[in-house]
Amino acid sequence: MKHHKNKIWQERFYLILAGIFISSLVSCNLIFQKFFYIDITLPFIGQYSFEQSVGLLPYPFTFLVTDIISEIYGKKKADQVVISGLIASLFMLLIISISDYVSATSWSAIDDTTFSKVFGLSGAAVFASMMAYLTAQFIDVRVFHFWKRLTKGKHLWLRNNASTIFSQCIDTLSVLLLLCYFGVIPWDKLGILFINGFLFKVFFAAVD
């Protein structure tokens, strides 16, 4: 009886984690077109204006969730969530594309131009995001298990941070290169967006 209850709890917890992962990923691709800045004071640097896409805000949760699933349920389950996230994002793109294609009524609160400007994700941007995401997530899962085998299951903090920091570096650089190549963002923003994005992800990797 106790074993049965534990199994039900594990299944429910897995679904909750998968839901957080997929919602975080989908929201990244919905809101990434807005960029924000925060003025902060850094040691030895002074005043610094941190600029980045708001799509970066929910993204660290995807790596936290895959690390938790990898630790509790194993690499196979983590890979399944990664694939599910990819399918959900592509389905989201399909729905938005159809919604953008149909014409708004004269009394619609949101007209065609506004909708297209806010939700009209370009195919290049989504392709860049998905390719970087898929590569980084699979790297994250595999590096996590490499460190787990190497440390014989000890030092969770090491494999969590080592896998996440490395994979997020790959993710940040690859998505920005693709977005610059397809003209979604200008090349002169590549350096600062990479530094800001990577440091942001490293900070949250340490926190999680």
Give the helix proportion (percent range). Answer: over 70%
- Unreliable spans: none
Radius of gyration equals 19 Å
Distance between the termini: 34 Å
Estimate what percentage of residues fall within beta strands: 5-15%
N-to-C order of helices and strands:
HEEHHHHHH
Oligomeric status: single chain
Shape: globular
The secondary structure category is mainly alpha
- Figure out the total of helices: 7
Largest sheet, strands/sense/barrel: 2 strands, antiparallel
Task: Provide the residue-averaged pLDDT.
Answer: 81
Q: Which strand order does the major sheet show?
A: 1-2
Please give the number of β-strands: 2
Plain-language structure description:
With 208 residues, the protein is mainly alpha-helical. Helices cover 73% and strands 8% of the residues. A hairpin with a 3-residue loop joins strand 1 and strand 2.
Task: Produce a short descriptive summary.
With 208 residues, the chain is mostly helical.
Name the descriptors:
208 residues, two-stranded antiparallel sheet, mainly alpha, 2 strands, single chain, globular
